[in-house]
Specification:
heterodimer, A: alpha/beta, FAD/NAD(P)-binding domain, Flavocytochrome C3, Chain A, domain 1, Methane Monooxygenase Hydroxylase, Chain G, domain 1, 15% strand, B: alpha+beta, Ubiquitin-like (UB roll), Fumarate Reductase Iron-sulfur Protein, Chain B, domain 2, 2 domains, 7 strands
Chain lengths: 637, 267
Amino acid sequence: MKLDARIPAGPIEDAWDNAKFEMKLVNPANKRRHNLIVVGSGLAGASAAATLGELGYNVKCFCFQDSPRRAHSIAAQGGINAAKNYQNDGDSIYRLFYDTVKGGDFRAREGNVYRLAQNSVHIIDQCVAQGVPFAREYGGSLENRSFGGAQVSRTFYARGQTGQQLLLGAYQALERQVDAGQVKMLPRTEMLDLIVIDGQARGIVARNLITGKLSVHLADAVILATGGYGNVYYLSTNAKGSNATAIWRAHKRGALFANPCFTQIHPTCIPVSGDYQSKLTLMSESLRNDGRIWVPKQKGDKRRPDQIPEVERDYYLERKYPAFGNLVPRDVASRNAKAVCDEGRGVGETGLGVYLDFAEAIQRLGVETIRERYGNLFDMYQRITDEDPYKVPMRIYPAIHYTMGGLWVDYQLQSTIPGLFVLGEANFSDHGANRLGASALMQGLSDGYFIIPYTVGNYLASNKLKDVKASDPAVQEALASTQQGVARLLSIRGKRTVDSFHRELGKIMWDDCGMSRTFTGLKEAIGKIRALREEFWQNVTVPGSGDDLNQSLEKAGRVADFLELGELLCIDALERNESCGGHFREEYQTPEGEAQRDDEHFSYVAAWGYTGAGNKPELTKEPLEFVYVHPSQRSYK
Amino acid sequence: MMKVTLTIWRQKNPGDKGRFVSYPVEVVNGEMSVLECLDVLNEQLIEKGEEPVAFEHDCREGICGTCGFMINGVAHGPMPATTICQLTMRHFKDGEELVLEPWRSRAFPFVKDLVVDRRSFDRIIQAGGYVSVSTGNAPDGNAIPIGKEDADRAMDAAACIGCGACVAACPNGSAALFTGAKIAHLGILPQGRPEQDRRAVRMVAQMNVEGFGSCTNIGECTGVCPKEIPLEAIAKMNHDYLLGAWKERRQVVTAITPVTGWTFGEK
């Protein structure tokens, strides 16, 4: 297979404008004749469904939660980047583009990233117009902060709840279209298969989570905006319901899966406290603007932090990276935390933690300023740990947070199945091997508000789509195989719970394919995952029936998919014999222990094709070209 | 290590006659949340071949609004400004009994065990909880200055997570705090003012059609609200409603027909 990314020719500054002009348009009167499916109602899905409804398309939007407002975009804390340069500190579209390509460790497409930076400024305008209550200066203008390794202040925020406010903006726009009759919302309905007819995506099979009924929904195009696959690690900062089922089943129907091994570990989460733990709680990395990270210089130092004198503390990020200090990108901060803990200098009961200390900032700025900036985060930390971060340094440790990989899409956000579009975290497109802070919200909304409305129209206007009926053999096959899949899970009646399999998979993934990876570890992990998958299909137990609300059954289907995706993730990590961004192979590092890329051999997107159960997936490479930002060793020293 | 008893409302579906069932649970660490306690119990039930307790949850960090039930008669349990997913077991005593019940309200039809249907909230938003600005219509973000005080007050109201605790706690089953929060958030900001009258009139009408009760200023709602939405949101709603009803009195107000049941006309 040859992959055509359809990047427009010509200067990068004009590429998106030219592409928009080249795209075919659907006549306003014809838009209402087109049915579109949007799966997922987070920032990307809700913004896409709302905007397509505004344009006059008939849209059906699906989410598995009880309301579209629950989608996990809601939990993003820190902010959203935009190249507004309101602060007059030297920001520009080009600089945001440059930072994102470099931050992604030169594994993203320049064309896509440039467009993202261009759209960033429109996103802020749109959200303000919707009534998103961004932080303001006393004079009434929008406030910005520096965030996650950026040297300019380009991050817009709404307290520590930026994702919530942006999602509510998109949700409200979506509900406005529901009221207008343009969007039909189907909550508590989970996509379980993609319907492909004559090579084109023409619908989905979905399960009503209350009645258990399977149903077929046909359309002229299908848009997946179902988020990332971080829960393959079991413990992550994702919501408990976040899953990869929609994208994985589309993958099994022919959509290539790109760069699955590019996963992001967030450096500032509350450390694990026990086996019962169900998820990890993120502490926004905006905390690193004022908090100083340290561990004791001495191994196994069990003294309380206030008893460790200044000279016996190692502010290791400030020491190793004087230019960026505590604000180094996420991958660098996470690896260094792991390194000091591996040396035996970690803190807390488990030894898997480092201090994030605000004492100096409180002294410099006063408690009130710190409370104003981070009050809700400090409260959340105290609720969970019962420690007061105004007095005692926080303990933090890295956790799986975001997945840069996802379904392969071209510049038009179309997957390798014509008519199947993928938006937001579910696609692989813009962040390369590492995502910069405050960029996920930007990408979700750029895809949904400003890209898909053009590209889906172009697809509909350039393709003659025949009428399809529910009686089509492809529809019946998809429905029957989904039915069998559900019945099979219920019929095993083994001895182990779904969660116990999920936990075991997560441990394998975290140990062997987490913050650092090795050839031997990955080989072993693949074997262990295969064995675990086999056991799952022999010995899982799913109580209850398939015709009412059955949360174990929902989980079982998702974990079955994670058991396949986890293997592909390890295969991809094994194949990529280099370190870049979030993918750190111990064999490939600089003498200082930094990630060592191999541009000569690995400057490509690895897109994997499904070749049947148990078969080796097929790799297709999309070479990456860098015309504007020249690959260099990332240095934050 | 301590032991607690979870006494949980079990009801298979709206047609089933519900009952309380008591389960002993061991708490290994005070940092465990109430939901993690339920996870542990459910694992044990599944291993015994019984059906686990159905409860709703998603982000488990207090922001998605999915979780929520009554603990000993208090919505989201005893800690102020805390959702159930962030309520840790250290706040309970060894040997304590926790009685868990679903939100009970006419406008939240029952689904299963601790799960109810809160789509009435979505319909209240559909009735006007937005600014009618389509994508592409926006002026520059700094074109209209908004003073910090106004932005902060709007944010206070916008922090609502739509969990439904306010309704469950209210003796009248009123949704005034939820509705008022959205009316206040948008009504304070210049972007929301053009639709202020219409929004208040339609959202209040929808609230009534859904079967929520009237507000009599008791204040239980704000007491249990995990985001501490202030009671002044209701005052703002009443203010906007009165003005709007007077200004728009000749207009016919159409409400959205509430949907119950879970079929979406699937084929």
